[in-house]
Amino acid sequence: MPNQQKKVIFCMAGALSFVCALGVVTALGTPLWIKATFLCKTGALLVNASGQELDKFMGEMQYGLFRGEGVRQCGLGARPFRISFFPDLLKAIPVSIHVNVVLFSVILIVSTLVGTAFFMYNAFGKPFETLHGPLGLYLLSFISGSCGCLVTILFASEVKIHHLSEKIANYKEGTYVYKTQSEKYTTSFWLTKGHN
Q: Which of 49, 53, 115, 147 could be stapled to 140 by a disulfide with Cβ–Cβ 3.0 to 4.6 Å?
């Protein structure tokens, strides 16, 4: 491969790796991972609501890895709420899974930034074959991809298997019981998944 073509390819790969790191950092900071709707089961059963009446008992929320917000409705008007995972929800969520999602997200950011540095070094420097050459780039790309997959799998299992949305909706609710009706992954989840 000619030297100029090699520089262009490594520069483009380095720029793409840097954009990926910025995308993951942005995704971590936003509460746009999950959007969920939930039903106030207690209130709907009390008044035997059905059809259009159920709309008065439907709430919604959106949350990310660190914070979220939503509106609870139980027939008496909207009650907005805000949540933060640290320290508020530590007793309600599966902490070990959530901390692992954050940890692997940080490793993903670090590995993509190191990958960026190695791509640029390969483009403009004289790399050593072991870590700075193609093997090092393959290794860092594999680590980044693995961490992205782990973040996706762990967060999806936290949401689906451990019913995270329901736990958040029912947090500090003594009287009413909320049941999740729908959940969908939003922008930040797909942004993180896209950087595998």
A: 115
